[in-house]
Amino acid sequence: MLSAAVFLPLAGALLLAAWRSLGAGAARAVATLVAAAPLALLIAAWLAFDSTPDAPPFQLVEEAPWIPTLGVAWRLGADGIALPVAAMSALLFVAAVAWPTDTMGRARQYYAWFLFLEGVTLGVFLALDLLLFYVFFDLSLVGMYFLIGRWGHGDSRRAALKFFIYTLAGSLAMLLAILGLYLATEPLTFDMRAMIESQPLAGTGLHGSLVLLGFVAGFAIKTPLFPFHTWLPPAHVDAPAPASAILAGVLLKLGTFGLIRIPFSMMRDVFATWAFALGALAVVSILYGALVALGQGNMKRRIAYTSVNHMGYTVLGIAAAGAAVGSADARVLALTGATLEMIAHGLITGSLFLITGAFWQRAEEYDLDAYGGLARSTPRLALLATVAAFASLGLPALAGFVAEFHIFAGTFGVYPWLAAFGLVGIVITAALFLDMLQRLFFGALPERRAEFGDLSVRETTVLALLLLLVVVIGVYPRWLLTIVDAGARALIGG
Amino acid sequence: MLWLLPLTPIAAACVVAAAGRLRSRRALAAVGTTVVLLTLLIAAAAAAGGWSGAALWSRAIELRIGLSPLAQIVAVTLPAVALPIVAYASAHEPEFGLRRLIALLLAFVGAMELLVAAEDLLTLLIGWELVGACSWALIGHDWRDGQSPRAATHAFLVTRFGDLGLFIAAAAAFAGTGSFAYADLAALQGPLLGVFVLGIVAAACAKSAQLPFAFWLFRAMAGPTSVSALLHAAAMVAAGAYLLARLNPDLSRADWFGPTIVAIGAATALAGGLVAVLQSHAKKLLAASTSAHFGLMLIAAGAGHPAVAIAHLVTHAFFKALLFLASGVAGEAVGSYMLRNMALRQALPVTAGLTFAGTLALAGVPPLGGAWSKEAVAAAAADAGHAASAAVIVAGALSACYAFRFQWLAFGRRPEERKGDAEGGEDEHAGSDEQRARMTHPKIVEMPSATELTALGLLAAATIALSLLWLAPVESSFGRLLDSSFPHASPAEIAASLVAVALGIYTARVLNAAPTLLEHRAPAALAEWFALPTLLRSAVVRPATRLSRSLARFDDAVIDRLPEAPAAAFRLASRGMSRLDGAVVDRGVRAAAGLSLWLARSGTRFVEPATDGLPEGTAWLLGAAGGDARRAQTGLSHHYYALIAGGVLVMVLILIAAS
Question: Does any domain span residue A348?
Fold first, then answer.
């Protein structure tokens, strides 16, 4: 089932690439259908998943030999953290593919790259083999590179290249770390479950710390954490809106997910030694990201920097959960919150980037001061943007709050000061989002925006569905918390 | 079951917001009041039936709601006050966005009910922040001018800053007890208890507009009058004082809690009173008085009498809502909220009369309910020391002063009318109310509708009905509802209090007689919360904005360049290597070529002869050997025999050696 979720979109990408007679509209229809298939499969997997305390952590495992001499195999499986994150990603891919956009006359290729990207990112979330993880992790760069470079606007090639080289450098650091970890296994294997079981680098001192540094560097660039975040704003600003949504909603999660999956799980002792430093870096990201976002006049850059802030919350939760101090209950809360933040941020920031796409399609302008008073002429856009903005600033009854509350309540039990400093971020995000709403939608309508049209039916539907899920998670998160809580408890114990 | 209490108005709000055909004022009034009435009935039934509710989030977290005695009273008071306010809003507010306004007011009530019914800190936080978000939307209701949304943002940010305290309090409770429930707070000890109390106090002071956060209420005046009425009377602002009363037993376990709260409350009561006395803007005067009266509630809560705080919250809710709605009528009538433009007694006699009930209650004049609860606060304050009592009495004097200033300026007679009275000539104005009003008051713009007057009437009736609290049986049954009894002031204290009220009223008369007195710079600055908003702007807002802009520049100029260092290093290295390539490798290649050329040349000179000599030499050697061999072939048989014998000898010797 999981293998099918990875292969179907890849096959769909090949199909689109080969099917020369397909028109733009048909290509989108086919792509939307294919993109929805993994979502359906993952929902089925979710229903089959056993979240009771005694259930095995990794379920629905699929295994096929690949390079037995090196201990590499096609191993897929899911735990209570990977499955919801993967399902959210699949949903976001459906939304991004369904979102109407200018494909510049190359519709088949555009949708093919999206499907390719969907396949490989789901591969990252579902991989249980470290080499497989790495392969998928790097392939995701390729897909995004082409989406930004070929369908972006402005100086998109340069942005794409910067994105590619920067994150590839991170991947290389990670590759070294993977080799360091692999060579410590006995017998040699890339099986993640075996590595989690055996904790190969326990008690190795400097060696373990260097391997951890490699992983953290790689994932910190991907996440991104301060000060490795500067590839993000240009990539976002010049990317087409759906690619931005996927970049923020899915690709950034590869970093935090990898952090949980590899160093957090496979080298607990070493991770605990450095947890506070990582948490402190996360707090810097939270505050710095929020403040710099507030200083931006370009709406897409502003939202891009809030990702630095929100992913900082996620890393803070992960760091607290991996600490050697604090009660198990508090750490479970922190890790649950971090996972929830990945899902919430994916849905919310994905929506926000799609909304910026609506602005670009209509006026080719991201400057906040170029707008105003749009609440009158575009009530649907104003309402949905307001909901997304409030969700992002962490208003209760919306998904972001559930995540952030878990993170702060959990982190406080481990590192109270980090939690207290990090909290200030939620006031700054409130300021920057309210300021953005005010500059876009309130006050007087500039004359040149008189023709600015409201969201189309398709745009409204896509956004409303994403935001509906944000509300559902905010109001009744139990169905989600059950599985995430099971995953977090399996990792932390208790 | 109890979930119905918050969810009914919230669900109704969603329906109203989505019902595009709901346009007429009458329909909106009907729907709005029906929903609030339904909420009132649910609250009453829930209070009587002891309803509760719970919702499981995960193994660690469960949301719980229920109605403690204090919560019951507030849960019922809230819709009771909201009912006339919603009716008034549907008749009074401009057509623009009216449906949205009514929907938001309903959602506001629902969120506040959730806050009131919460029995754990997470539920409380949810209600708390939802109330804040509703207030943002309500204050910024008229978004077209751009000023209201800015004011809304200001109010939201100040209160959200306080909300951080609630986040921290909830986290501290979980860290200490492993749960968010109020019921488990008793287990909280040591430093975590201190953190918890500090967080709650910060959140409550921000929400209830206490010092140092008091000024946000002024900006909140940008919202419609009905919003101000609900916000000040029973929702939002009430949340802080309510929380301090609700969690009083747990909070009091921190020694410093009581004195701190009393100090903050007293400071706000006095400062707010002074601000209100000096204010010339009707709504701002009332806003400052709200801070002051919530300060009185804080004093009661800090002195260990949460029931008294709630009692004053209830009486205050009715008379403050009445006064706000009245100020809206007056402001609408003359097109401005400046008190000096009003003087509407002749023009709006009914409104003036109804307002007077509220004024008396605000001033603390017996036998109004407001006076009863203020005396209860004074008696409670005695437990916190003489200073606290004195502060309450002085605050009462200030309250009387601004109450009567408001009444006399807004609904008093105009100077020329007073002159006419002195001459004994009472004008008889024929015709309708409106004609008479226009004749007596040239500036009149708009007359109150029947709905607005009914709303005022209901609130005035409730304000007057609360006078019954002076009766001992009513008081004791109210005490039973709150599961508490009320402290009584000594006759001396009551006398002092009454004298203070009388002094206050007299001061109001003096001030009104010299209206230009308050237009000097010093009182005008004091009237804007001692310039606290300016201080906030220059000490927090501007630096934060500047910091964010410079950080944004720093990010582009420095952080973005950091990876350029390795990139530049690579570029430098590659350039160096290409130079190396030119300098060393290239020369090396040339040198190698030269070397081989040299080798080739030396080859022709030395190797060639050498190699040539090898075969030649071999041939010569062989030739020489052949010559020697030929010499051996002599043809003489004895030479051959000798050679054979020698050979045999050698072979024998070899065989012997081998064996």
Answer: yes
Does A21 fall in a domain? no
More confident residue, B212 or A260: A260
How many angstroms away from the CA of B171 is the closest CA of chain A?
A: 4
Does the CB of A136 have a partner CB in chain B at under 8 Å? no
Yes or no, beta carbons of B56 and A336 under 8 Å apart: no
pLDDT confidence bin for B15, thresholds 50/70/90: very high
A201 assigned to some structural domain: no
pLDDT in tens, B523-534: 777 777 777 777
ipTM computed for the complex: 0.92
Chain B touched by A296 (CB under 8 Å) = yes
Q: How many CB atoms lie within 10 A of CB B587?
A: 12
User: For residue B291, is pLDDT > 70?
Assistant: yes
SS3 annotation, A247-276:
HHHHHHHHHHHHHHHHHHHHCHHHHHHHHH
Gyration radius of chain A's alpha carbons:
21
Nearest-CA distance B558 → chain A (Å): 10
Chain B neighbours among A 200-239 (CB < 8 Å)? 226-231
Q: What is the model's pLDDT at position B499?
A: 92
Instruction: Grade residue B430 by pLDDT with cuts at 50, 70 and 90.
Output: very low
Query: Which of A405, A423, A430 is nearest residue B122 as measured by Cβ atoms?
Result: A405
Q: Does A488 touch chain B (CB under 8 A)?
A: no
Per-residue pLDDT reduced to its tens digit, B236-248: 899 999 999 999 9
Backbone angles phi, psi at A273, to 5 degrees: -60, -40
pLDDT of residue B429: 46
Residue to mutate among B548, B553, B558, with most A CBs inside 10 A, is B548
What CA–CA distance (Å, rounded) separates A121 from A89? 8
Chain B residues whose CB is inside 8 A of the A293 CB are 548
Dump pLDDT digits (tens) for A2-32. Answer: 899 999 999 999 998 888 888 888 889 999 9
Residue A444 belongs to what domain range?
A: 272-494
In B, minimum Cα distance to A442 occurs at B143
Q: How confident is the model at residue B146 (pLDDT cuts 50, 70, 90)?
A: confident
Residue A295 to residue B550, Cβ atoms within 8 A: yes
CA dist., res. B57 & res. A475, Å (int): 10
Helix locations, B50-146, DSSP H: 69-92, 98-117, 121-139
Q: List A residues 398-417 in contact with B (Cβ-Cβ < 8 A).
A: 401-402, 405, 408-409, 411-413, 416
On whether any CB of chain A is under 8 Å from the CB of B448, the answer is no
Q: What is the mean pLDDT of residues A104-118?
A: 90
Rounded to the nearest 10°, the torsion over CA B369, B375, B378, B380 is -80
Question: Which two three-digit tokens encode residue B238?
Answer: 């009430």
Q: pTM of the prediction?
A: 0.87
Give the nearest chain B residue to A423 (CA atoms): B164
Q: What is the mean pLDDT of chain A?
A: 91
Using the Cβ of A494 and the Cβ atoms of chain B, whether some distance falls under 8 Å is answered with no
Rg (CA), chain B: 47
pLDDT in tens, A204-250: 778 889 999 999 999 999 988 988 888 888 888 889 999 999 999 99
Q: Report the alpha-carbon distance of residue A224 to residue B453 in Å, rounded.
A: 60
Tracing tokens 């849960």 back to the chain, one arrives at B75
> In degrees, to the nearest 5, what angle opens at C-alpha B519 toward C-alphas B286 and B503?
55
Domains: count for chain A: 1
CB–CB contacts below 8 A, A to B = 147
A413 lies in some domain: yes
Put simply, whether B56 touches A (Cβ < 8 Å) is yes
Nearest CA in chain B to A374: B144
Q: Is A298 exposed, middle or buried (0-12, 13-18, 19+ CB in 10 A)?
A: middle
- Which residue in the set A294, A332, A396 is minimally distant from B126, CB to CB? A396
Inter-chain CB proximity B145 and A443 less than 8 Å: yes
